[in-house]
Amino acid sequence: MSPTSPTSTRCRKMPLWRSIPPASPKEWKWAGSRRIPKFLVIGHRGNGMNALQSSDRRMRAIKENSIASFNSAANFPIDFVEFDVQVTKDDCPVIFHDNFILSEENGTVFERRVTELYDSLCTLQEAFEQVEPSLGFNIELKFDDCIVYEQDYLINVFQAILQVVFNYAKDRPIIFSSFQPDAALVVKKLQSTYPVFFLTNGGTELYYDVRRNSLEEAIKLCLEGGLQGIVSEVKGVFRNPGALTKIKEAKLSLLTYGKLNNVAEAVYMQHLMGIEGVIVDLVQEITEAVSDMIKPTTAEDGGDKNLLEGDGKMQMRVKSKPEFSQRELSFLLKLIPELIQL
């Protein structure tokens, strides 16, 4: 296919920077403070990933990584949507999860690498232009685990992505994240406006690159590269809850992803542990559960006593929830790793 295909024209390409522009005057304060201001709920690939083999219709109701999915998630009290960005052969950042896509030419179906395409896919620019502007974007920088990337290649990819971000993000909150350690380090060096998180399985799977194999290695990478935090598979945290203390001592933020984040009780446990946000597929169900965790209540709801001030006005307070002593919480943290062992 020729470079004059729809993707090329929709990207409205401009010359790539030779140097990355300085941070915007409206620099998002979180990037510097390293502290997340609230418990975040982030929609996985928009309103949830697709699982076409699943009997659960919610997992295939809306196409993942699409404008429709992002705007569907925006109908709920959600903070961010997470999606995967790759850069095509003609330097256009597109939103697509898999490394390969089935393509058809002359009646023959074959597999092609997404980065080799000129075809029309949902572009990052379109997402900025067409998605509810108050919705934050968690942009996962997607790379193939089987390839070792040269720094020059990574820089070229990020120039294409950052060009779109700086031109179209405006005041939209942005988080960058990547499973590829060098990618996370390079994008942090190229810009200081937006926080960068390192994605890890937390030791639930092992890789040739040891930096990917534990929460301890993730902490080390973040501290060495000045990253803001870690996004871990939730099982990795539940199996190794002691790492949470190390993460907090390092003044890093911690978010999680994984199937357990579609279980309200697992999300509530993370809230108690001090984890700062979750990436979920069941956006409606989990946002409702999280809203209930912090829902304001009054004395009429059987909430806390002493809610009346001297002027007799009713004051709002966080809804009462089961309270755990430090000893009980410690017991739960020891029990959870045993419960989720494979």
UniProtKB/TrEMBL annotation:
Alphabetized InterPro entries for the sequence: GDPD (IPR051578), GP_PDE_dom (IPR030395), PLC-like_Pdiesterase_TIM-brl (IPR017946)
Gene3D superfamilies: Phosphatidylinositol (PI) phosphodiesterase
Domain GP-PDE: 39-290
EC assignment: 3.1.4.46
One example of a Gene Ontology biological process annotation: glycerol metabolic process
GO molecular function: glycerophosphodiester phosphodiesterase activity
Keyword RNA-binding: no
Substrates-to-products reaction catalysed: a sn-glycero-3-phosphodiester + H2O = an alcohol + sn-glycerol 3-phosphate + H(+)
Domain of life: Eukaryota
Pfam families on file: GDPD
The keyword Metal-binding is assigned to this record: no
Keywords, in A-Z order: Glycerol metabolism, Hydrolase
PANTHER family named among the record's database cross-references: GLYCEROPHOSPHOCHOLINE PHOSPHODIESTERASE GPCPD1, GLYCEROPHOSPHORYL DIESTER PHOSPHODIESTERASE
Name recorded for this polypeptide: glycerophosphodiester phosphodiesterase
Origin species: Prunus yedoensis var. nudiflora
Lineage: Eukaryota, Viridiplantae, Streptophyta, Embryophyta, Tracheophyta
